[in-house]
Amino acid sequence: AAEVHETKSLPDSSESPNALPHAVLQARLTPWAEQPVPEISARLHRLNLHTLWPQAPQTLLSGTLDVNPLPATEPAGWQVRADLRNDRSGPWDKGHLPVDRLQADAQWQSGVATVRELKAELAGGHLQSHGRWVQSPSAHATTDDAGDRVSTTKEAKEATWQIDTELSAINPARLYSTLTAFPIGARAQVS
After folding, report:
1. Do the beta carbons of residue 87 and residue 63 sit within 8 Å?
2. pTM of the complete model
3. In this predicted model, what pLDDT tens digit does every residue of 2-36 receive, in sequence order?
């Protein structure tokens, strides 16, 4: 199988706090494989998404984002890890992203998305969450070794999900400036 490793950079890859904004993106390409982009890695330093895409909020993102295949000993899937800091957080209605820091550990495997851990510092407070979402089965045909159709399954089940989230000291006015400023804390378990 052919593989191509590609790295793209915006100027200046030093890690000095005063360095110019930059991003280093790496991807492993497997053009003829079932998943043509199985790995992606991003290293960001003071990146403003608004300069790349005018509809995006103002940001100064620094940190890492990695998407990697699960080990070959497990069914096919991806591991996603992120550790990002935003030094230009602010209310959404003022054109900013109200998140100061985001840490995530998640995976996608066999139609199941699992968030093992999601932590965010936002709007002056904290969010912690974990959960999973299971894709609904859809109509699909099965075939035998010769490629002949054996059966068709048509299950119309809904997707299932479970989320456990805790918020502490979230200031709504720091999410959206016209909201009243008072700390919100809550815990929700939803399925």
Report:
1. no
2. 0.74
3. 444 455 554 444 455 567 888 898 988 888 877 77
